[in-house]
Design goal:
Structural class: alpha/beta
Helix content: 40-55%
Radius of gyration: 30 Å
Mean pLDDT: 81
Number of strands: 12
Low-confidence stretches: 267-273, 438-470
Number of helices: 24
Shape: elongated
Strand order of the largest sheet: 2-1-3-4-5-6
Length: about 600
C-alpha cells in the first residue's frame, strides 16, 4: 500500500473544469496553515458533467462493499466513530450547526428545478445516470490507500452515495462536504438515509460546511439527515458566487479539516508538551485534578463495554479540562502548573496516549470534607452520563471503592473514603421519600444563588470548611464560572460548607426549585455527618443556614397560603422545601449536632 495520501474531489453542477479552479484555492489555504506538501498528494478529480445529462449504456449500480456492522459491533463502531469526530471537533473548535433561515427549503426546491440544477435532479432520480457516474468515479480510484474526499454541491450527494461502495482496501481518513443540498428531501433517492443510518466502518469522520447565504445549503445542516456526522456553519463573502467551491475552500476551517485529513496533526507538539512550572495549584486546579484522579481510580475498576465507554468519556473530559485551565491561565497571565501541564495530549489524534494523573498529594481532614463530598455526589465526567455498577467481588459500589483509594492516597486513610459515601447515603435517606439520588447540576441554582457564590455577597464561609477563604472562592469561580466540571465542583464545595442570609434567601425564593434546595441541603447535611464520623468539630453555619431557610420558606408559605389554591404549584414547592429543611434540622438535633453556646455554667441552645 502506498503511503501517498489520495485526495478525491467530487464536483457539483456548473463547476466547469474543477481541477483548474478549486485546487489553487485549496493549495493557498493549506499553505497558510503550514501544510506545504500538497504536491505529495495524489489528486483525483473525475469529470462526469456530460454523464449527468443523459446515458447511452445501462450500467449496473455498483455493489455495497462496506457492510454495516450489527449488534455489539455496531455499538463499538459508533463509539469509535464518535471518538474520531470528537478529536476533529477538538482541533477545529466546537461545531455550529445553525438553523438556516425561513423559506430556505422553498428556495432550494425551486433552484433544483431550474436549468443549472436539472443535471442534479437527473442523478437523484435516474438510476442509470447514478450508476454511470459512480462507476466512472470508481474506475479512476486505486484499490487501496488512504483517501480524503471533498464533495461540493451535487458532489456531496455523490460522495455520500459512494462511500459504502469503495474498494475495501481504501481507508477514508475523512470526508468534507461543502455547499451540500443533502438536507433537502429532493436529494435522497429513498435509500440514502437508510444506507447511512450508521457511520460506515471505512469512514474516519465526516464534516459538512455550510453557509446561510448559500441558497443550496441554507436549508439546514446535513446532520438533520445523518445525525452521527458534524456540521460547521461558516461565513463567506456576500456575492453572486457564494455557492462556489472556491469560496468554501478558501475558508481557514475548511482548509484545516482537509489538511488534517491528509497530513494529520501539525505544529501543535510544543503546546502539548509544555512542562509547566513547579508551583502550587489554585483551588480550581486542585478540584480539577482531584476529579480526574478519582475518575481514573474508578476507571481502573471497570471492565468490558462500560470501561470502553468510560475511557472514551474520560479522555474527552481530560482534554477539555486541561484546555480550559490553559485558556484561563493564559487569559489571566498565570503560569501553568506542571501537575496540570503533564496531563495535556493531542486530543485531535484519536490514538494518542493520554497521561494519567499522578497520585493525589496529602490533604488534611478539614480540607478534604468539601472536596471529597462534592466528588462523591457530582457527575465528574459531565456532560457524559455513565452508571457505575457495584463491585461483585468486594460487594460495594465501585465509586465508593475508588473513593477509599483516593482518600488513602491523600493520607486520610481508606475509612475516610468509606465515611464519605456513608455520609452521602445517610443524608439522602434522611431527606428522601424514596426518590433516586438527586444529580441536579449546581449551576441550576439560579442567577441569584450563582451570583452570591461568585461575588461572596451575603455568603459566610466556615472557618474550618476546607476552603481557602472568600478571596480564593471569588477568584476561582470568577475565572471558571459556576458551570462545567471545574466550576460545578467549586460551587458544590462552596455551598456544601457555607451559609449566610443571602444564600438562605436565594434557596428559599420561588426562583429556586424544591429539587435544587433539596440538593443543597442534602450536600450540607452530608458534610455535617462526615465531620461527625471523622470526629471533626461541627460546622455551625449549616444549622444557622437551615434555620434561616426554614424561616424564609415558612414566611413565603404563610403569605401565599391565605389566598392561593391549596394544590397550586407554588404552595406545593414551598411545602416540599419545608419538609426537606425540617428533616435535616431534626437529624442534626437528634444526633447532637445542634450548636450550643456556653455562658458560665449555663448551656444555651443557639
Amino acid at each position: 500500500m502506498s503511503n501517498e495520501p489520495i485526495l478525491l474531489f467530487l464536483h457539483g453542477v456548473g463547476d466547469g473544469d474543477p481541477h483548474d479552479k478549486w485546487l489553487g484555492h485549496l493549495s493557498e489555504s493549506l499553505d497558510r496553515l503550514g501544510y506545504t506538501e500538497l504536491d505529495k498528494v495524489k489528486v483525483i478529480a473525475p469529470k462526469y458533467s456530460h454523464a449527468l445529462r443523459g446515458f447511452d449504456d445501462n450500467d449496473a449500480l455498483p455493489d455495497m462493499t462496506i457492510k454495516l456492522p450489527v449488534r455489539e459491533a455496531a455499538k463499538q463502531n459508533r463509539r469509535d466513530f464518535e471518538r474520531r469526530m470528537g478529536a476533529v471537533e477538538f482541533r477545529l473548535g466546537r461545531s455550529n450547526s445553525g438553523s438556516g433561515w425561513g423559506g430556505a427549503d422553498t428556495v432550494v426546491n425551486a433552484a433544483i428545478g431550474l436549468s443549472p440544477f436539472r443535471a442534479a435532479k437527473n442523478y437523484m432520480s435516474t438510476p442509470q445516470i447514478r450508476a454511470l457516474v459512480l462507476n466512472r468515479i470508481l474506475g479512476q480510484l486505486p484499490r487501496e490507500g488512504r483517501l480524503v474526499i471533498i464533495g461540493h454541491s451535487l458532489g456531496s450527494v455523490i460522495a455520500a452515495d459512494l462511500v459504502r461502495r469503495l474498494p475495501v482496501g481504501l481507508d477514508v481518513a475523512g470526508m468534507v462536504t461543502i455547499g451540500s443540498p443533502l438536507a433537502n428531501g429532493n436529494c435522497d433517492d429513498g435509500k440514502l438515509r437508510n444506507d447511512l443510518k450508521d457511520p460506515p466502518a471505512n469512514l474516519g469522520w465526516w464534516l459538512n460546511f455550510w453557509n446561510a447565504l448559500d441558497p443550496v445549503a441554507a436549508h439546514r445542516g446535513v446532520s438533520s439527515v445523518f445525525p452521527w456526522m458534524v456540521d460547521f456553519r461558516i461565513a463567506t463573502k456576500v456575492d453572486t458566487h457564494v455557492h462556489d467551491a472556491e469560496q468554501y475552500l478558501s475558508n481557514r476551517t475548511v482548509g484545516e479539516a482537509v489538511g488534517f485529513g491528509l497530513f494529520g496533526s501539525l505544529g501543535r507538539e510544543v503546546e502539548f508538551f509544555d512542562k509547566g512550572f513547579d508551583i502550587p495549584l489554585d483551588m480550581g486546579e486542585q478540584y480539577a485534578l482531584a476529579a480526574l484522579r478519582y475518575s481514573y481510580l474508578i476507571n481502573a475498576r471497570l471492565s468490558g463495554e462500560i470501561k470502553d465507554r468510560h475511557t472514551g468519556a474520560l479522555r474527552a473530559v481530560q482534554a477539555t479540562t486541561v484546555d480550559r485551565i490553559r485558556t484561563r491561565n493564559r487569559g489571566e497571565n498565570l503560569p501553568m502548573p506542571a501537575l496540570v501541564a503533564r496531563l495535556a495530549f493531542d486530543a485531535s489524534e484519536p490514538t494518542s496516549a493520554v497521561p494519567e494523573p499522578l497520585p493525589s498529594k496529602h490533604m488534611g481532614k478539614e480540607d478534604a470534607v468539601a472536596l471529597l463530598t462534592s466528588l462523591a455526589v457530582e457527575n465528574i465526567i459531565q456532560p457524559f452520563e455513565i452508571s457505575i455498577p457495584k463491585d461483585k467481588k468486594e460487594k460495594i459500589d465501585k465509586r465508593e471503592a475508588a473513593m477509599m483509594d483516593l482518600a488513602a492516597e491523600m493520607g486520610l486513610g481508606n475509612k475516610y473514603g468509606s465515611d464519605v459515601f456513608a455520609a452521602v447515603k445517610l443524608a439522602h435517606e434522611t431527606l428522601s421519600d424514596g426518590r433516586p439520588v438527586n444529580w441536579v447540576r449546581w449551576v441550576v441554582l439560579g442567577a441569584g444563588a450563582a451570583a452570591l457564590v461568585v461575588v461572596t455577597g451575603g455568603l459566610v464561609l466556615a472557618p474550618a470548611a476546607g476552603l481557602a477563604g472568600a478571596a480564593a472562592i471569588t477568584s476561582a469561580l470568577a475565572s471558571f464560572g459556576p458551570g462545567g466540571m471545574i466550576g460545578g465542583l467549586l460551587t458544590a464545595g462552596t455551598l456544601a460548607t457555607a451559609g449566610g442570609g443571602g444564600i438562605a434567601f436565594s434557596l428559599a425564593s420561588s426562583g429556586t426549585s424544591a429539587e435544587t434546595l433539596e440538593a443543597v441541603v442534602e450536600r450540607q447535611l452530608a458534610t455535617a455527618i462526615l465531620r461527625k464520623l471523622q470526629n471533626l468539630e461541627p460546622n455551625p453555619l449549616i444549622w444557622s443556614t437551615l434555620v434561616q431557610i426554614e424561616s424564609e420558606v415558612r414566611r413565603q408559605h404563610e403569605r401565599l397560603d391565605e389566598f392561593s389554591d391549596e394544590t397550586g404549584p407554588a404552595l406545593t414547592e414551598l411545602k416540599r422545601k419545608i419538609v426537606a429543611v425540617e428533616r435535616a434540622l431534626a437529624y442534626l438535633r437528634e444526633n447532637g449536632l445542634e450548636p450550643v453556646v456556653v455562658f458560665s455554667d449555663a448551656v444555651v441552645l443557639v
